[in-house]
Amino acid sequence: MNPRLRFVLAGGSLLFVVVFTALGGARGQQEERSPSTPTITASPQTVTSESGVVVRAHAEPTEATIGDRIRYTIEVEAPAGVELTMPVLAERIGAFEIIDFGSLPPPTGGTRARVGAWYTLTTFETGRYVLPAPTVQYRRGEERGEATGNEVTIEVRSLLPKGETTADIHDIKPLALPPFDPRPLYLGALSLAALLAIAVGLWFVLNRPRQPYVVPPPPPDEVAFRALDRLRAQRAGHDDWWQPYYVELSAIVRAYIEARFGIHAPEMTTEEFLAAAGNDTRLTPTHRNLLAEFLQQADLVKFARALPSLDDAEAAYRSARRFVEETRLVAGAGLGGSHAA
Prior knowledge:
Elements: H1 3-27, E1 46-48, E2 54-60, E3 63-65, E4 70-79, E5 83-85, E6 92-93, E7 96-103, E8 112-122, E9 127-131, E10 135-140, E11 143-148, E12 152-157, H2 183-207, H3 220-233, H4 242-261, H5 270-278, H6 285-303, H7 310-327
Parallel strand pairs: 3-12
Antiparallel strand pairs: 1-2, 2-4, 4-8, 5-10, 6-7, 7-8, 9-12, 10-11
């Protein structure tokens, strides 16, 4: 809370206590005075106004050293029915700083109103100081006036022994710098080198020559099936067509055997080719006999100019297709694997 606001609130509360206490004292004028409440009499530090308002100020201790806390008290006594307004002190009283304050507890009994306030003061300046006399405003009916208290003298001494001056006090030494530690530099250099190596590696990976993607050739059986379907679609019914038909049909089968089994069949005669096929264990006897029957029939048409029937041409086509189906390479069967129809 703002100290000025605290003082204003304290002054308003103190005024309420004063008025309430004064009215209470007026109602109890006929009561017997309490023997336990002493009467405040004027002293050398007490000032009494013409209206009977007594203002007294005192400090404890009156001799202190810098930094000590000093309790400064203002006490006011007035006849019953008198309204009092205590002085509102600011954040400081002269060279002293107010670090705390409060109201004195109101006394019980008696025919006079008594109020008071206390303040905790401190200072860090040496010397002899005189606190000004506090002024209290009062009102009694239509009568208004002020009552002034007494001044208070406080002497503040230094903590240094007599004969010593502030020149004997030296400032603290400057902060000592820690010894140089090269480890952060080593760590930074290693981190930089690692990042550089990663960057170079990524550059080589992203910029290395790429091998052109080569589309793998279709399997031999697929090429043969396409060629057989194409040949069957082109088949005609005139006599001159049968010889080219068997020549193409024989070429399709020989190209398939070369691609499938590695036998260079297109340049071999039928006898040479059948002899080479007989030495290949990947061809079963059934496949060899089927191939021999097909090739011999094709030779009759190509070289002996035999005239086959339409059924013979269809049977030759089916024999070629059956040979490809039964000897084609099956996935997972290895190089020597074949499909059995």
